[in-house]
Design a protein that fits this description.
The protein contains 15 helices and 4 strands. The protein has about 300 residues and is mostly helical. It folds into 2 domains: about 100 residues, Arc Repressor Mutant, subunit A (Orthogonal Bundle); about 170 residues, no CATH class. The chain has a two-stranded antiparallel sheet. The protein has a two-stranded antiparallel sheet with strand order 3-4. Strand 3 and strand 4 form a beta hairpin. The chain is elongated. The termini are far apart. About 30% of the residues are buried. The N terminus is likely disordered.
């Protein structure tokens, strides 16, 4: 029996490495990638124009991003047409064998039609999208250059609010300063620290190539809660009255609660990791940020 038939008939016969398992898990974790894999398997050899016609709801850039994610499961012939690689055949067979399990664990909420549950389901979907905006970060990760310039707007706003309020962010905590350049060092430092340390831990934990470009572009969007907190702190310096919801400490704590799932989602989508593996990297990064914050706060006192 040929190797091809062995793979087709028994996808577990060949030993799969941890890296290959992660590749398959990432690929099968998206409905659109499962559909692309099934379409190519069904037609055996498929050109890009055929894929573009079949998945017309996807923009060209998004389709290229999905194909790039599937690059280890696909191969191309002399005419640059796509067909499944041996690992791709294993992934497709696993998808068929574990269809119910894969669909049950998919990101999208599967809801039953009915008036009684519609409001609850919609509320859960909104809350999930707010804390775990997977599609947003997937879109941001697909075009890092554009994302970088969009993120620079967030960094610019943070710098304005911090400098005008005479604050510096040490980790995620604000401290009063007199010189404006401390505000710049704090915010730029937090941005670069989160990107580089997260990428470093990702490379060390999962033995991947060190390439922080995507995270440098995406991290400003993780800092959005901090920008909102700085805005309200800045606003409080401009109004005569003090309101409880403008209290800096409360805002900072709420911002950190929001930033943690945002960062986890960003790492998951940009580095194509499962959420559990992403959370491990992010937690270590945040612990380091907190440790630095406590040291500087202790020195400042």
């Amino acid at each position: 029996m040929s190797k091809k038939n062995e793979l087709d008939n028994n996808p577990h016969q060949e030993e799969i490495s941890n890296s290959e398992e992660e590749i398959i898990y990432t690929a099968l974790g998206s409905q659109i990638r499962r559909d692309i894999l099934s379409f190519i398997n069904k037609n055996q050899i498929v050109g890009f124009n055929e894929l573009k016609k079949e998945f017309r709801s996807l923009k060209v850039g998004s389709l290229y991003h999905q194909l790039n994610t599937l690059k280890d499961l696909l191969t191309q012939d002399a005419n640059k047409k796509y067909l499944l690689s041996n690992l791709g055949k294993v992934a497709h067979n696993l998808m068929i064998l574990n269809k119910d399990h894969i669909e049950a664990s998919n990101v999208k909420l599967i809801t039953k039609k009915g008036k009684g549950n519609s409001l609850t389901n919609k509320s859960l979907e909104i809350i999930t999208s707010f804390f775990l905006p997977r599609r947003i970060f997937q879109h941001l990760a697909s075009e890092p250059l554009r994302t970088f310039f969009e993120g620079a707007i967030i960094i610019g706003a943070m710098l304005f609010f911090a400098i005008d309020s005479q604050l510096v962010l040490i980790g995620f905590y604000p401290l009063d300063v007199e010189e404006w350049y401390f505000s710049v060092i704090g915010i730029i430092g937090l941005w670069i620290f989160l990107a580089l340390i997260t990428e470093l831990l990702y490379a060390l934990f999962y033995k991947r190539k060190y390439n922080p470009v995507k995270l440098i572009a995406i991290v400003p969007f993780i800092l959005l809660p901090s920008m909102i907190a700085l805005f309200f702190i800045w606003l409080q310096t401009k109004v005569a009255a003090t309101f409880l919801f403008l209290d800096g400490q409360i805002l900072i704590v709420l911002g950190q609660i929001w930033a943690l799932p945002l960062m986890t989602t960003a790492v998951s989508q940009s580095k194509e990791l499962t959420m559990s593996r992403s959370s491990l990297v992010v937690l270590f990064t945040f612990y380091l940020a907190y440790a630095i914050s406590f040291v500087f706060m202790g020195i400042n006192q």
